[in-house]
């Protein structure tokens, strides 16, 4: 990709899941990611199932349901729409807080399994260090 070349970012296309995870760890560290990252299988089955190319943003609720799906990025991203979806999802979850529900990554994995998609590998975000 030309923009990556200009920025000095050169990464060989991973050929194994282990290589892909290593690249993802490097990316998460370099970008100081503050949210979980899903590393897809080498055959990109999650990306294909969720129309992930070139980029797509999703809000997944605690029960593993898709609450929001952005347009194809980056030009299809509408941060205001995603923010509204996050707020509405959180309000809905607050209303249902008295009932026991599935939580976070486990629910997302179940939704992937329900859709016959590999559960991939979650990389936990690292806490940003203070400067």
What does this structure look like?
With 131 residues, this protein is mainly alpha-helical. It has one domain (12-123). The chain is 40% helix and 10% strand. The protein has five helices and four strands. It has helices at residues 2-6, 17-31, 45-49, 79-95, 104-114; strands at 37-39, 58-60, 66-69, 121-123. A hairpin with a 5-residue loop joins strand 2 (58-60) and strand 3 (66-69). The longest helix is centred in the middle third of the chain and has 17 residues, at 79-95.
Instruction: Please mark out the parts with pLDDT under 50 across 5 or more consecutive residues, or reply none.
Output: 127-131
How large is the share of residues in beta strands? Answer: 5-15%
Helix content: 40-55%
Number of domains: 1
The SSE order reads HHEHEEHHE
- How is the largest sheet built, in terms of strand order? 1-4
What's the alpha carbon Rg, rounded to whole Å?
Answer: 16 Å
SS field, number of helical segments = 5
User: Which class best fits the helix and strand makeup?
Assistant: mainly alpha
How far apart are the first and last residues' alpha carbons, in Å? Answer: 32 Å
Indicate the mean pLDDT: 78
Biggest sheet character? 2 strands, antiparallel
Based on Cα principal axes, name the global outline.
Answer: globular
Instruction: Compute the number of strand runs.
Output: 4
Provide a compact summary of the structure:
The chain has helices spanning 2-6, 17-31, 45-49, 79-95, 104-114; strands spanning 37-39, 58-60, 66-69, 121-123. The protein has 131 residues and is mainly alpha-helical. The strands form two sheets. The chain has a two-stranded antiparallel ribbon. A two-stranded antiparallel sheet has the order 2-3.
């Amino acid at each position: 990709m030309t923009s990556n070349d200009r920025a000095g970012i050169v990464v060989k296309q991973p050929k194994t899941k282990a290589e892909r995870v290593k690249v993802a760890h490097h990316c998460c560290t370099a970008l100081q990611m503050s949210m979980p990252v899903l590393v897809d299988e080498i055959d990109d089955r999650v990306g294909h199932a969720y129309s992930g190319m070139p980029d797509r943003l999703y809000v997944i609720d605690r029960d593993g349901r898709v609450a929001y799906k952005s347009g194809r990025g980056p030009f299809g991203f509408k941060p205001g729409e995603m923010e509204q979806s996050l707020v509405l999802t959180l309000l809905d979850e607050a209303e249902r807080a008295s009932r026991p529900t599935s939580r976070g990554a486990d629910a997302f994995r179940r939704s992937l399994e329900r859709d016959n998609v590999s559960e991939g590998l979650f990389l936990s975000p690292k806490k940003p260090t203070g400067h």
